[in-house]
Structure formats: C-alpha cells, structure tokens
Amino acid sequence: MSKSEVVFISTPAIGNLVPLVEFAQLLVNHDPRFHATILIITMPQRPTVNTYIQSHASASATSINFLHLVISAITYVN
Questions:
Q1: In this structure, are residues 10 and 36 in contact, taking their beta carbons and an 8 Å threshold?
Q2: Domain limits, the chain
Q3: What global pTM score does this model have?
Q4: Percent of the chain with pLDDT over 90
Q5: Residue 14, Cβ neighbours under 10 Å: how many?
Q6: d(CA 46, CA 50)
C-alpha cells in the first residue's frame, strides 16, 4: 500500500493553525494511506502557537509532521 503525502501551509496565527491541524488529523485518521506535513511559519513572538505545536507534535508523531519555517529579519534595499 502506497502512502500519499498532503502538505498544508499555515499562517503564523493560532486561528488558522488549529483548524488546519484538526483537519489533517481527521484526514490521516480516516485513511491510513495519508500522511500530512504542516509547514508552520515560526515566530518567537507567538508563544501560544509554539506551545500548541509542541503539544500536537508529540501526540501525532507518526502521522503528522510539523516543518518550521523561521522568519528572519528582512532588509529592503532601494
């Protein structure tokens, strides 16, 4: 049986992340052929988002991967 990878991109807001994680969890629980990866924009100013991710990463270690995209300071040059 082959697995299908589904990739989700989340905004750094908790209001977008929670339903996205819940949908990914429902998807992988419904069909074991699915595996989900969630791309998360990590910001140190968002401790609630980081805590939520850490709690779900340990609970769903095999079916959902969380990939952190770190935002660094952007310098604009004219």
A1: no
A2: 4-70
A3: 0.75
A4: 23
A5: 14
A6: 7
First to last CA, the chain: 53
Q: Which amino acid is at 24?
A: A
Residue with tokens 């340990």: 58
What's the length of the chain? Answer: 78
Check: CB of residue 27 under 8 Å from CB of residue 48: no
Alpha-carbon distance of 26 to 41, in angstroms, equals 22
Are the C-beta atoms of residues 10 and 39 closer than 8 Å to each other? yes
Q: What is the pLDDT of residues 13-47, one digit of tens each?
A: 788 888 999 999 999 999 888 999 999 887 777 77
Cα–Cα separations (whole angstroms), residue 67 to 2, 30, 75, 76: 22, 22, 24, 26
Beta partners for 41? 69
